Structure formats: structure tokens, C-alpha cells
Amino acid sequence: MTRPGRRFLLVGLTGGIATGKSTVSEMLRRLGCVVIDADQLARDVVAPGAPALTEVAREFGDVLAPDGALDRKKLAGIVFADPPRRRRLEAILHPAIRERFLARLAALEAEGFDGVVIWDAPVMIESGGHRQMDRLIVVVTDPATQRARLVARDGDAADGERRIANQMPLADKAALADYVIDNSGDRAATEARTREVHAALLAELQARPSAR
Description:
Layout: E1 9-15, H1 21-30, E2 34-37, H2 38-44, H3 51-60, H4 72-79, H5 83-111, E3 116-120, H6 124-127, E4 135-140, H7 143-154, H8 157-165, H9 170-175, E5 179-182, H10 187-207
Parallel strand pairs: 1-3, 1-4, 2-3, 4-5
């Protein structure tokens, strides 16, 4: 997705549920990357009064809390195990999210930002968005660690198994990555690998003829 005149490197960051993508994202932010969080944009586009929230409520019915905010847990219960309904939700939200994402990129271009921009998105590969990135990072972990973290976080082993089964296998995601960060070990090991990847991205950026 490299564009003439754009000085930054656009890097996709994705993974699977409970692999530690958010941990890596925060590490990259502390290293100086600009992080655009798809989950945050998804929350923004369904804020009270937003057009997308009106459309979601019309499509899915009683999914609003008493204060008018989206009841995300209730909506998740409707769409999680129903792929056609989930695709309908994505069809409503993704254009609004993409509009905000592109506006953020345009602002960074206008500022002349010349570093690394991270697009942190959980279903980037499934949606085909990884093809628009300059580089792709996939965060993985071993199956036992993934399941243990998910149970520790949500307390429901059966639900965790369903969520993992409904996702694209991590090995398939990793096969598409330019860089893989294995978060199976301790935090120090993950941070060391994240620093390696960040250094490699900076080296790529500096080597580009259009970098400066």
C-alpha cells in the first residue's frame, strides 16, 4: 500500500484471541510507533448518536443499554455464533471504521510523519485488509497458553474453545506474516522480539528511497 509521497511505513498487526496482540501493540507504541486501534475505532463508530449505531439497532433489535449506548455483550451474543449475522454487522461497521482509518492516515501524511504506523486489527487477514499493508506482523502463542489465558480472562473454557475454533488458525495467519512475534514465553522474551521487529522495520524505512 506504499504511496508516492507517503513517508511512513504502514504495518499491520494482528493475531488470535488471547495471543497477546494488545501487549505487543503497547510495546510498539512505547517504542515510538503511531498505533491506530481498530477496536477503538469500532467503539467510536457506535458511540451514542453515531449513524452506525442507529443502523445496528435497526438491524439487530434490542441491543441498546438504558443510557442509549451499545450493549456490546448482548450484540456479541447475537452475532458470535451466527456467521451470516456477523457478516451483516461487519457490513455496517467496516465502512465507517475504514473511513476513520483513512482520515487518520491522511492526517499523518499531511503532518509529514516519517516513522512506523501500526494498524492494530484482530480480523485484518480475514477481511483482506493485510493486502493494503506495507508489512504484516502476526502475534502467536502455543495452543495450551492461548487456552489458559482465555480461561483466566473469561472463566469459561467451553466458550473459549468455541471462540478459538471460529477463528482462522494461527499457523495460517503466521504463514502470511513478514514478522512473527511468539508470545508464548515471558514478557521479557516478547519485549525482546518486539524490539527486534521494530528495529527491522526502522531499517526498512530508512532504506526506502522515499524515506527522506
